[in-house]
Amino acid sequence: MTTKPSRMNQELVEMAEAQRRLGIMDEPSFRKITLRHLGPDAPPTATPISGDEIRNVREQAHLSQAALARYLGLTTGYISQLERGSKQAKGPALALLNVIRRKGVEVLL
User: Fold this and answer.
1) Residue 101 lies in domain
2) CA–CA separation, 94 vs 88, rounded Å?
3) Co-location of 59 and 99 in the same domain
4) pTM for the complete prediction?
5) Are 46 and 94 in contact (CB under 8 A)?
6) Residue 101 shares a structural domain with residue 62
7) Same domain flag for 14 and 36
8) Are 42 and 35 in contact (CB under 8 A)?
9) What is the pLDDT of the chain when averaged over all its residues?
10) How far apart are CA 85 and CA 76, in angstroms?
């Protein structure tokens, strides 16, 4: 039987996430806090995805850069920068790319 984390624990994790995004907290500290307050139910962290992996995901789905950008709510230029490796995906874009990598683009349709 799993129990839902308390509201206080959820708030602590949300605050730690905001501090991590702002660069105030490092990734290991964030993981430690998340695991401590959410226990084994802690959501998996999004793993970094390389430009080649993004290109492979897009090509396997038979999508152009413009089409993938539309599905993710991003610009075509940003997708191009990700694929070239001049930018690294972060935040919601990284999370969505990881979901697509694991389950396919069909989950967004």
Assistant:
1) 51-108
2) 9
3) yes
4) 0.58
5) yes
6) yes
7) yes
8) yes
9) 81
10) 14
25 and 57 within one domain: no
The encoded tokens of residue 46 equal: 């999004």
DSSP 8-state assignment for residue 5: P
Please give the structure tokens belonging to residue 51: 């430009």
d(CA 95, CA 97): 6
Average of pLDDT values for 39-58? 77
**How many domains is the chain built from?**
2
Q: Is residue 2 part of a domain?
A: no
More confident site: 7 or 82:
82
d(CA 50, CA 44): 18
Amino acid identity at 83: E
One domain, residues 12 and 61: no
**Phi, psi angle pair for 34, to nearest 5°:** -60, -45
